[in-house]
Design a protein that fits this description.
Elements lengths: L4 E9 L6 H9 L6 E2 L12 E2 L13 H4 L4 H17 L15 E6 L5 H14 L8 H5 L3 H10 L5 E2 L7 H14 L5 E8 L4 H9 L28 E9 H6 L6 E10 L12 H14 L6 E5 L6 H15 L7 E3 L2 H4 L6 H15 L1 E2 L23 E2 L4 E8 L3 E9 L3
Parallel strand pairs: 4-5, 4-6, 9-10, 9-13
Antiparallel strand pairs: 1-7, 1-8, 2-3, 6-7, 8-14, 11-12, 13-14
Helix pairs in contact: 1-13, 3-6, 7-13, 10-11
Length: 417
Amino acid sequence: MGKRVVITGMGIVSPIGNNLDDVLEGVTHGKCGIDKITKYDTTDRKVTLAAEVKDFDISKYVEKKDSRKLDLFVQYAIAAATDACHQAGIFEEHDEEVDNRERYGCIMSSGIGGIATTEREYERGMKRGFDMVSPHYIPMTISNMAAGHIAIRFGLHGMASCAVTACASSGNAIGDGFHYIRDGYADVMLVGGSESAITTLSIGGFTSLTALSTVTDKNRASIPFDKDRNGFVMGEGAACLCLEEYEHAKKRGAKILGEIVGYGANCDANHVTAPHPEGKYAAKCMELAIADAAIDTNDIDYINAHGTSTHLNDLGETRAVKTVFKDHAKELVMSSTKSMTGHLLGASAAVEAVITVLSMENNIIPPTINTKELEEELDLDYCLGDKAREGQIRYAMSNSFGFGGHNVSLVFKSVNE
């Protein structure tokens, strides 16, 4: 079975809060992080809503002169990773004799990277000539730079990588980091994802794909499983989990927040953007994760769904859950926290992992807010309502599916189990 892998720290920057306490409060009371886009003028644009990060202050983490060289997705990632390390206490007192950072690594993903910087520098190049773009342009935008900056910041000499699998990216980051520790290659891995893609070009591209909701009522924009759903809402932010080998964490007296026990990853190999309509390989992915965890389907109490509020995804995921869990599908609880946070693309799996672990710690089940009337075939318990439900979660699954057919399922075990 390999080594046990526990979670000893978490950090988050999200549309419903920029720290764990605020996010827990937001999830408990069904806070909607969606509102009118403020990052650019949406006049004459079809999409006017997004789930933006509010009141973010990078100066708490990076000096102002240095932050100018960092795209916002990297800033978010540094903030989340720093908070995760602080909670874990892993770098509070560093002793080279004890603390072997050659066995510490980082996998921090992003689906799109620094697209805002690309747009800005393209405009500069058009005006001043392309030899005059910023010398920081390339290292500000490439997707691996969140992982690179975190590794440099904390002196991580182990594997530093970046899984780029669209909306499944940070799910792969977490799962790959989990297996890397479990198989004995590392003691500590900082894993997660970051995204800041609420930009004119990015929103325009997803709009032309007809992937985004075009409604103007923020309370009816991200409505997973609702018969009136018509697309997802773009979100932004980052989340990081400090994964640690159990004995390593125990030896230093770390507080254990939860345990990761299962990881499945596969591909629909079906279509560039559309999921398999029956959720065939999403179902197999869930089965892989459950087998990896060495548990039974009946052990899963809660699923944090990918639940994007798009027609094909919500339907296919529900069909997949029914295929895997059979009669137990009607007994477990499933919800989409994207109803509150919007869809953070490459950061979504990490944000949802943090929310799932917080929920397990605090014996709550996150709600699917603003969903009113379910589509006929979508007949599971999606925890509808405007606040969390009380309930103990022993094992939870979190699903993430991305363009290209990428599927990831993660299984977490509660410390209360």
